[in-house]
Amino acid sequence: MRYVSTRGRAEPLGFADVLLDGLARDGGLFVPEHWPTLPPLEELRGRSFAEVAVEVTWPFVDGEVDRADYERIVAAAYATFDSPEVCPVVPLGSLPSGAPLHLLELFHGPTLAFKDVALQLVGRLFDHVLDERDQRICVLGATSGDTGSAAMHACAGLERVDACILYPAGRTSEVQRRQMTTLIEDNLCAVEVPGTFDDCQDLVKAAFADVEFRDEVHLAAINSINWARVMAQVTYYVTAHLAVSPDGAPVTFVVPTGNFGNVLAAWVAARCGLPVDRLVVASNRNDVLTRFFTTGTMSIAEVVPTTSPSMDIQVSSNLERLLFEALDRDGAAVASMLERFRSDGSVSVDVEVLGRLRAEFDCGRIDDEVAASVIRSVHERTGLVVDPHTAVGIGVAEWLDATGPGLDPGVPVVCAATAHPAKFPDAVEAATGIRPVLPAELADLFDRPERFERIPADLAALETLVRRRVV
Ligand SMILES: *Cc1c(COP(=O)(O)O)cnc(C)c1O
Prior knowledge:
Elements: E1 3-5, H1 15-21, E2 30-32, H2 41-44, H3 49-61, H4 67-78, E3 89-94, E4 100-105, H5 115-133, E5 137-142, H6 146-155, E6 161-168, H7 174-181, E7 188-193, H8 197-209, H9 211-217, E8 219-220, H10 227-244, E9 251-256, H11 261-271, E10 276-283, H12 288-295, E11 297-299, H13 319-326, H14 331-344, E12 346-348, H15 351-358, E13 361-365, H16 368-382, H17 388-402, E14 413-417, H18 425-432, E15 453-454, H19 459-470
Parallel strand pairs: 4-14, 5-6, 5-8, 6-7, 7-15, 9-10, 9-14, 10-13
Antiparallel strand pairs: 1-2, 3-4, 11-12
Helix pairs in contact: 3-4, 3-10, 4-5, 5-6, 5-10, 6-7, 10-11, 16-17, 16-18
Bound molecules: pyridoxal-5'-phosphate.
Pyridoxal-5'-phosphate (PLP) binds at residues 113, 115, 146, 224, 256-263, 310-311, 389, 418-419.
């Protein structure tokens, strides 16, 4: 499999290069040259999550990783999850129209959010590819919480990878911070920076822009535009389908999203032949995606903080991959669209393109008050406690079910549960009066010693720290 850039002006590359490079040289994102066909669902039934993952993702890596190595790497990645099913599906009754509703629990990995599903695999793939090439990298990233802790856990103890993750002092949740600072592996470094997430992000961007420094320490990114992360997420849409649709009939997926990374993987699954009825994009008040799928116009708005902070995003980078397909893989058209977006703060697709997108996607947004009432009502109805991101998905499913043409009552609905409720205990407690407890493996998180570096928001200080860490 070769990968092409969504902006059409970079050399096609193989999987290992795409894994390590992240972004294409022309600023675009990598997508496979063609969409492979999933194995027949019947052949996947009854197999373990890791086995399905190998079958589903093999065409994307074939030729670049040895099959036996890949099977071993995938098995090791998912052995870190605290559920034998890795991403279990639990029934949640039905929507008022009658459609059965299910939760796809994506939070059984080491940091309790869906990002582990991809990153546990991606970290190991980094190590494997670097070993074959006899290279090292230093993963450098900024985090407002979930991504950084998932990335550090994914890199913990890897032979050929160092990881430095910057976080804004006092602005992550305590659980999120401790998930970074209590790791003991020597190749990891949590870095506290005074200021906001944007200050951390600017510092990271400045380090990547210092080309001499970047080459000297072999900087690498692990953010959500990396194709390997999207690829890894395709698996759980297949396993969820197997779980809720014994006859292989179409399923509707509802995905709480900000950066369009998770729902994009559902769309890739559909491209590869998974029978999908609707893909539902669920937004909080930062509703750039819902506005886009409703009006065809993407416009910049101010980010407002919500109780689902991992979706507080107004520029959804992964949408570029969908646009590339919607514009018939015309990279020049994608590039000029994104240029207009950057210069004017707004850009539109024509009605025909919007119509094509709407044939697959529905969307909706709910605010924090509705999300809180969803957490409360789900708990009263089923005894289950869901996190505020998951609540956005359920709330949008309920809203769609009750309005317009609605959802087809005969089609099972699967809502992605993207975080464990204990990761966002304040919002959950405010809604239900119950403070969710951490799973047993993390029960002593608040007793573990913390270890971190503290630097001023200054590029020279960051570069000194990274140099010291990578020698
Ligand atoms: C990162 C994250 C999201 C949003 O993911 P996208 O890739 O933007 O779809 C949703 N929920 C949680 C808990 C997250 O950590």
